[in-house]
Amino acid sequence: MDLRRSILLALARRYIAGEDVSGLVSLAKRLNSQGFRITANYLGEDVATDEQVRRNVDEYILLMEAFEKGKLASSISIKPTQVGLSLSREIASKNVNRILEQAADLDQFVWIDMESSPYTDDILRIYLSHKQSYSNIGITLQAYLKRSQGDLKRMLENESKIRVVKGAYNETPDIMLKGKSEIRNNLAEMLKALFKQNNFFSIGTHDNKLIELATALSHEFSNDNFEFQFLKGIREEKASELLDRRFKVSIYTPYGRSWMPYSIRRMRERDSATYFVLRSILRL
Ligand SMILES: Cc1cc2nc3c(=O)[nH]c(=O)nc-3n(C[C@H](O)[C@H](O)[C@H](O)COP(=O)(O)OP(=O)(O)OC[C@H]3O[C@@H](n4cnc5c(N)ncnc54)[C@H](O)[C@@H]3O)c2cc1C
């Protein structure tokens, strides 16, 4: 590996577990020993060739085998376009099925990440069709979409396990809520609905107001059948505080050779000092 790539990888390690399963398993062991669970994502989305799709599916199966072998408190989190949705819904669905079959044998849980809005309907359809046969699957809903309250209602009617997040893609104003506070309020409403029901759910946010709302709702409804999920490297002190307060916390941890775009995005968002160093290195 050239020197520049090694330096970049060292900086990126705050946000990712490394390039392969072995790095991820070491990190998972460390996180588990501290009381955190891990949910792992193999980096790379919008995959456009059969060969790459097959490799991604194989990678997730390898990963789940390693998790099972290490008896780790873990789950995986997959993006449907990694397993074929950019090619067709049928291909993605077949691959999700293959992953779920293995996950059931290996006692692993599979979160489905939500991608940009052209994929939302297909992802929900794939999720619902497999949910009939498998209980070890959960779906992500994005609070920034106007449609999400309706989706939440439909998914809850189907007794789904749901992860709520604000949403991360560039969407147009016709389908997206306007401002930060509107999105936060929408997520707050979604949380209220989730705390009133009994299925397991997950809260993927670093937003202090929402986290504290969730802790209050948990007490109000005596419902602890949920976990907080944090992205690796972000607000680690808050994640530890929640553990100390006896909440379940899982660390969403990406890994894989395509770590560069993901890590740069995370640094650009807030970590301006590291981003500055990174830009200087990239310009060398
Ligand atoms: C477990 C998990 C799974 C996700 N899955 C999906 C998905 O499937 N689909 C999807 O569209 N999106 C997903 N996301 C991303 C999500 O939609 C948001 O883009 C992201 O979480 C930022 O929103 P926030 O709720 O943390 O609020 P923000 O308002 O962005 O951040 C709240 C606070 O968190 C801190 N913070 C946020 N980012 C950073 C950073 N990089 N460095 C340091 N501090 C930071 C800051 O203190 C900030 O004020 C996921 C997020 C998580 C945590």
Can you give a write-up of this model?
The chain contains 11 helices and 8 strands. The protein has 2 domains: 1-15 and 258-284, no CATH class; 17-255, TIM Barrel (Alpha-Beta Barrel). The radius of gyration is 18 Å and the shape is globular. The protein is of the alpha/beta class and 284 residues long. The chain starts with a helix and ends with a helix. Bound molecules: flavin-adenine dinucleotide. The site of flavin-adenine dinucleotide has 23 residues, from strand 4, strand 7 and helix 10.
Distance between the termini: 16 Å
Query: How many domains is the backbone divided into?
Result: 2
What's the story with the biggest beta sheet? 8 strands, parallel, barrel
SS class: alpha/beta
Number of helices: 11
Radius of gyration from CA coordinates? 18 Å
Low-pLDDT stretches: none
Keywords:
284 residues; TIM Barrel; 2 domains; 8-stranded parallel beta barrel; binds flavin-adenine dinucleotide
Short synopsis of the structure:
With 284 residues, the protein is of the alpha/beta class.
Can you lay out the helices and strands and say which pair or pack?
Blueprint (H helix, E strand, L loop, with lengths): L2 H10 L8 H14 L2 E6 L7 H20 L4 E5 L10 H17 L3 E4 L7 H12 L5 E6 L5 H10 L3 E5 L14 H16 L5 E4 L3 H13 L5 E6 L4 H9 L4 E7 L3 H12 L1 H12 L1
Parallel strand pairs: 1-2, 1-8, 2-3, 3-4, 4-5, 5-6, 6-7, 7-8
This protein binds flavin-adenine dinucleotide.
The site of flavin-adenine dinucleotide has 23 residues, from strand 4, strand 7 and helix 10.
